[in-house]
Amino acid sequence: MAGAKLFAKEDRQNGAAVDIPFLVLTLLLLTVGLAVLYSASSAQSAYDTRYTMTTRYLQKQAVCAGLGLIAMWAFSRIPAIVWYRLAWPIYFVSIVLLLSVLVIGQQVNGAKRWINIAGLQFQPSEVAKFAMIVLLSRLTLNYGEKAKRFRFGVLGFGGALLGILVPLALEKHLSAIMLMGMVAVVMMYIAGTHPKWLLLGAAGAAVFLLVYIRFMGYAGDRVTAWRHPELDPGDTGYQILQSLYAIGSGGFFGLGPGKSRQKYLYLPFQYNDYIFAIVCEELGLVGALGIMAPFALLIFRGYRIARQAENRFSTALAAGLISLIAVQTILNLCVVTNLLPSTGIALPFFSYGGTALAVNLGEMGIVLNISRSGKKRTIQEAAN
Asked: Which residues contact 340 (CB under 8 A, 6 or more apart)?
């Protein structure tokens, strides 16, 4: 009840305009991402369809983009209090979906992380990321200053996080665990958790990763391929070497739009995790920086919206959603350039993946809604 009262003023302000720069940047990244996806996936599409069409992946992505835009518009109209009230139901539904993967999940590319419902295939982990952010945002508001105590700032947040991470561990979904753990640390810091507990948690996570890599053969192979890809150029080191070839051949200005050589089935998953390598090959360093700039501006603008939000829940929610985009982007770029081992994390708005794209756009709609109250608040403060 106390939490609901904090939203009363915000609900009355819901008629304010959304943050236009944030909206423009989101649409820009979506548009450029679809264009890049077509170029990166055209050869693979032709091969997969026996050379009858080059737009197979683009068409599927475009449909999900349309659904995502509808979700973004709808979520931009939904008051933040709705997500506050739905935090626990969404959280428990996401856990059920994650556990159902272990029973009825479909295996794609060697990983069992997808569910098919009525012909619609999606990854429950994408829903789980959103559920975690919404719940941690609710706890941030509910705990208030108590978040500084170990009982709430560590055990409270940590218990909620484990409810999502344990099913992911059973799926052996290490990339999602890493991603969600990093986002959770940012949100806990915003909530007020003492930095010493976060540092201890980071140390514990590092130990977990070492043990995980030691006992999970495929994870160890990824680390070996990262450190010395040249030792096995035909197998474990093949993908990263081809990615580096693509980046290196792009030079300063690139080979030109659509003129990638590596996309002709040399670079595996060139339309997914390694799509940025195709960007570097076709557009060069200049084009790559041109792609990174809108991401940086979107993230900066998103955090600005979070800082100006009306209450702690909205601040945490916006910051969590933007941190999700930021961490995904940074990890993907580091993997493609071999600064980090392969993690299987896609590049938001660019990589092929309908569930991720639709969810990302819906999440940006929530940030746009939060920008309404923040914008109104800024105008009122200026008037006073």
From this structure: 226, 331, 334
How many C-beta atoms lie closer than 10 Å to residue 3's C-beta?
16
Determine the pLDDT at residue 77: 94
Buried b / exposed e along 165-175 (16+ C-beta atoms within 10 A): bebbeebebbb
| H/E stretch holding 367 | helix 354-383
Q: How far apart are CA 347 and CA 293, in angstroms?
A: 14
Q: Is the four-CA dihedral 297, 302, 306, 308 of positive or negative sign?
A: positive
Q: b/e per residue, 270-304, with b = 16+ CB within 10 A? A: bbbbbbbbbbbbbbbeebbeebeebbebbbebbbb
- Per the structure, the complete domain to which residue 112 belongs is given by 2-383
Q: What is the dihedral of CA 225, 228, 230, 234, to 10 degrees?
A: -20
Q: For residue 246, what are its two tokens?
A: 């693509």
pTM over 0.85: yes
- How confident is the model at residue 16, as a pLDDT? 72
Residues of the chain with pLDDT under 70: 1-15, 107-112, 117-120, 209, 212-225, 374-384
Element spanning 104, H or E: helix 80-104
Contacts of 91 (CB under 8 A, 6+ apart): 131, 132, 134, 135, 160, 163, 164
Whether residue 47 contacts residue 74, with contact meaning beta carbons closer than 8 Å, is answered with: no
Rounded to whole angstroms, the Cα distance separating 22 from 25 reads 5
* Per-residue DSSP letter, 119: T
| 319-341 pLDDT, tens digit each | 999 999 999 999 999 999 988 88
Beta bridge partners of 117: 120
Dihedral angle sign, alpha carbons of residues 158, 219, 247, 275 = negative
Give the side-chain half-sphere CA count within 13 A for 321: 30
Residue bearing tokens 């569910």: 115
Q: How many domains does the chain have?
A: 1
Note the pLDDT of residue 384.
41
